[in-house]
Write a structure and sequence with these properties.
single chain; about 625 residues; mainly beta; 5-stranded mixed sheet; 4-stranded antiparallel sheet; 41 strands; about 5% helix; globular
Amino acid sequence: MTISSTIRHHAARHSLWLLVLAGLAAPPAHAQDDWRAWGRDAGNQRHSPLTQIDVDNVSTLMPAWRYEMTKPGVPSRPAQSTPLVVDGVLYLSFPYYRVVALEPETGDELWEYTAPGDWNSPEHQLHWTGGSMRGLAWWEGDDRTPPQIVFGTEEGELISLNAATGIPNPRFGNDGFVDLKTPEVMNGFPNMHYGISSGVAVWRHLVFTGVHNADETGSRGPAGDVRAWDLRTGDLVWTFHTVPRPGGFGNDTWHDDSWRGVSGANTWSFFTIDEDRGILYMPLGSVHNDFYGMDRPGDNLFANSIVAVDALTGERLWHFQAVHHDLWDLDMPAPPILFDVERDGETIPAVGVVTKYPVLFIFDRVTGEPIYEIEERPVPAGDMPGEYYSPTQSFPVKPPPFGRIRFTMDDIATVTPEHTAACRELLMQYDGGRNRGPYTPPSEEGALVFPSTGGGTEFTGGTFDPSLGYYIINYADTGHISQLVKVEDDPDRRGYVGPPESRRIYWHVVTRMSVDGWPCWQPPWSRLVAVDVNSGEIAWMIPFGTVEGAPPGLLTGAPNSQKGGPTSTAAGVLFIGGASDRRFRAYETATGRELWSVETEQMISGANPVTYMGKDGKQYVTVAAGTTLLAFTLP
């Protein structure tokens, strides 16, 4: 492949600065307020020690600068990017395969790099749209290699750039590039999609890669394996088979030899690392197909699991499967968060993890033992011929669910009489929704299931305030009619099918249960929730976002408002976007009281805020809203 890139420098003002950075031989001492990883720290707490912006003055925040991600001649789409801020430089990635270094006090561009990518191809325009470029990773380098910015692309490439110049590292792989599409992971499907949609993680000299496997292309395709690579050379160090091979732990959960060639069970969001203990935590998604599993009977480890491995070797330490034989696309999208639990006078190193379902599982992060009891409870079985239905699913006794998990016609929305009547008519087309409680499976007749494929939670995840012991996340009560239609019965087959041998039997048809954008179940339709991890109870829960036209005083929350995660600070303030009303908000972390908000021109969708201290002594808060990176500071 021809490497095409553009690197642009603002030489007059920054050339001396760039030369000084490029000449640094030893890794620098980093400021404590740096934002060095997607979740700020490798444990993904997304909590800043800064206190300049506090509960009393946050209401005076003003725009500081903005950076436009659009570029003449290059297509654009809303960014889902969370920046890094290291050693006085802000690094930002965004579609299409672009990375820039900015001056964090002004937004002035220091360098720009565009990775190879055929974003004009019909496949990319229809399906991958140039890659999400959600996050970057920082490596401080060693005695031979200067600090690096590391990321992956939807083209299936792993790239390492000099952090001072944006130039690919010639010692890494093939002049800065490693081809991730090796025969072992492609499973005999060399032309099917394999890429990275979110980010990679770095620990010591290793970089860890997951994969974005294309959904709904059939059950067979590229593997979802997790791999570690040497940042000094680009060499492969280890591979963890997320669908176990014969002789491997968990292979017996794939009945009838159904493990062969399966696609999915992938970490498509973000890893978490216990740097002191050298443990890598993998949040794994579902296997394909997402909504039926006739050709994969069994519980299907390690799909829908958190798996803890030795970061140096890839050896499994422990795992927990949150969903057995997934038929709902209930990935584990939100990155696990590491924190301590204070219980009975003991400090327990813990990890919290969620699926798209509204429950939080908390484990001892070393042993994998649950901090609070987890029960296997009976769930409804379906009637699809040849389907395997797990008789039970996992439910934590604590904390309680923080979103909708069931529906009857008694739960129909009563926002306005007109909306109620329209929803009743819509739902009765499906006999009132045919929801039979938690984990109601899809069917040929169609059934209302919670959450919908988009998820109640998303990859944007939560934050953790260690002073309060609060795990905070936003959750949307999404639902839809989940219906299966045989492929041969659907003359209008749309979407990417994949090769015939990928075994696609049914189409999954989604019908939204909403009228004029308002869901048909009782609000609030989205919530911001704080869980006290030391007690296992919900500390507070508030509606998140607003909708136009609702009766005055009705707290509805905004539908589908899980598209941006919260960031907390030591000053007791948390920032969050992602609500469909296009507002960027600040809340009091201890109570959930709203302190400030501003309407953005474009929606914040999949982007998390970061906060940092500038060289000018001012604290800044930045967030990507659509195609613009916005920065705010005090007057």
